[in-house]
Amino acid sequence: MMESNLQSSGRLRPVDLARAHGLSTQAVRNYEAAGILPAAERTPHGYRTYTPLHAQALHAFLALVPGHGHAKATSIMQAVNRDATEDALRLIDESHAQLLDDRRTLQAAEAAVGDLDPVPQERSTTFVGPLSRRLGIRPATLRKWERAGLVQPRRDPQTGYRVYAAADVRDARLVHQLRRGGYLLAQIAPLIAQVRSAGGVAPLESMLRDWRARLSARSRAMLTGAAALDAYLDCRPAPPGDEPSASPATDPVPPPGAAGA
């Protein structure tokens, strides 16, 4: 009887909220405890009761996760639920800025890979001086890239000189292209690792296509999350102090002779 009364009055049990979103009741409780959902009311017997507003909050959170990640979506919902909407919007802006930066990195990687020639099959090698002149950089720059793990020349056992094989030249050219695009060595390192693990540039092209598809999916997910969050913001009551100011008709009438009368 209590369950039907709760549902008919617009109130929901944890299980109702959980089933509607494919979650466990414990997950719903955890989301409330984390501040993702507003605090639930309690019955006289201590049972949690939720409302359609809680359902809207849960829907918004689950819609935000694919585009922003669990941690960022949690922070966004926490900010909204403590009436810090500006903080939530700033977090969303940060995610969009990161997505744009990722797109620029992808474009630079695609351009750099497209400019590279296939690694020749013959065992051609070169040394630090000729390679630095070919790239138009100082030998010290190549040594810095080596310390960062971006190029891995072997050492001649007799002379100790650095010897760059064809694959090392490919890596150095790729690093050079990306550095010219303004990317940091720490940002370039994962791409170089992918080139090495793929065994060359050709298999990397498939990875770049997958990367672009993931960015597009993330962008669409952000749109979906934004729509759900906007709906939740519309449902929330105005925070204290945000009530509309009195209309001119109800404002006090200035006394006769006052400035502007």
Q: How is the largest sheet built, in terms of strand order? A: 3-5-4
For the terminal residues, how far apart are their CA atoms? 64 Å
**Count of β-strands:** 5
Instruction: Return the structural class.
Output: mainly alpha
Question: What proportion of the residues form beta strands (DSSP E)?
Answer: under 5%
Shape: elongated
How is this structure best described in words?
The protein has 261 residues and is mostly helical. Helix content is 62%, strand content 5%. The strands form two sheets. A three-stranded antiparallel sheet has the order 3-5-4. Residues 1-8 and 245-253 have low confidence and may be disordered.
State the main characteristics.
mainly alpha; two-stranded antiparallel ribbon; 11 helices; 62% helix; 261 residues
Helix and strand layout, with pairings?
Elements (H helix, E strand, L loop, with lengths): L1 H7 L5 H7 L4 H9 L7 E2 L5 E2 L2 H17 L1 H12 L3 H30 L10 E3 H8 L3 H9 L6 E2 L6 E4 H15 L4 H14 L3 H34 L26
Helix pairs in contact: 2-3, 4-5, 4-11, 5-6, 6-9, 6-11, 9-10
Question: In a nutshell, what does this entry contain?
Answer:
With 261 residues, the chain is mainly alpha-helical. Helix content is 62%, strand content 5%.
